[in-house]
Amino acid sequence: MRRAPRAPVRAKASRPPDSVVVHRFAQPFADGHIGAPDRHLRCMNVLRPIVVAALALQLASCSSAPSKMTKSSGMSSSATPGSASSGPAHAESARAGGQAASCEALTRTDCMKSRSCTLVSKTPGARDGQYACRAAQGPCEEGVAQFDLPGGGAQIPTRELGDAAIRSCTSRAACEYEAGDCYCAARGYGRTVVEDGPEAEEWLCFCSGGAPPACRAGRA
User: Fold this and answer.
1) 21: number of CA atoms within 13 Å, CB side?
2) pLDDT tens digits along 149-178
3) DSSP class per residue in 44-69
4) What is the three-class DSSP state of 190?
5) pTM passes above 0.70
6) Alpha helices by DSSP H, the chain
7) Residues near 217 by Cβ (< 8 Å), separated by ≥ 6?
8) Residues of the chain by 3-state class (helix, strand, coil), percent to 5
9) What CA–CA distance (Å, rounded) separates 220 from 210?
10) Rounded to 10 degrees, what is the CA torsion of 25, 30, 31, 35?
11) Judging by DSSP bridges, how do beta strands 117-121 and 131-135 pair with one another?
12) Positive or negative, the Cα torsion across 38, 43, 49, 55?
């Protein structure tokens, strides 16, 4: 009996070792080209020091910001909102100092016309024509222009107008009119730290150099 021929046995293809297997994504490296993964790694190696330097600079600027703000504010650590250098008392003192300085720079006539300044003799009782202009003090001096009082320099043609001028002082509580002691408002008959100028009229006085008329607090 004749046997049927056997089918030829094919040899099973053996898998090459791992070192020989070339994957598709690694093919460019095998061919000697630079692939995408290697390019990314090289970019990261280049950018890493730049990123680190930028972060260090940002941290340094953040840490130094508070000190810069404190320096630019110009405030000392000892300054407080309730310190003596601020508040209504300091503002009032500054205004008073400014008013006193502005009064001192006035001539006799300008001082007498002012309702916030008062002209007084430098030496009480003397008739030397030396005067000082200071800030008005108290309710009897403040708001009263000495120039408008009899003997202050204003032209008062009638007795009625003179009495009305005196009442502008005496109508105030505890205030009384004090007549001038041989005061002459004409130019050249006295001075403050500033000499008389064209604001003072020229006429002749037979008596001069004494205290000007004023509105004073009544004597007790």
Assistant:
1) 7
2) 999 999 999 999 999 999 999 999 999 999
3) HHHHHHHHHHHHHHHHHHHHHHHHHH
4) coil
5) no
6) 27-30, 36-73, 88-104, 108-113, 138-141, 159-170
7) 138, 140, 174, 175, 176
8) 40, 10, 55
9) 24
10) 40
11) antiparallel
12) negative
Which structure tokens are listed for 103? Answer: 């009064």
Strand partners, 121: 131
Give dist(CA 37, CA 25) in Å, integer. Answer: 10
Residue with tokens 């500054």: 94
CB atoms within 10 A of CB 179: 13
Specify whether the CB–CB gap between 132 and 192 falls below 8 A. yes
Burial of 17 (0-12, 13-18, 19+ CB in 10 A): exposed
Domain layout of the chain by residue ranges: 97-217
Place of tokens 């001539």: 107
Tokens 């050249």 correspond to 188
Q: Which amino acid is at 125?
A: G
At residue 8, does pLDDT exceed 90? no
Q: For residues 24 and 5, what is the distance between their CA atoms, to the nearest angstrom? A: 43
Q: d(Cα 209, Cα 214) in Å, to the nearest integer?
A: 15
Q: What is the pLDDT of residues 104-143, one digit of tens each?
A: 999 999 999 999 999 999 999 999 999 999 999 999 999 9
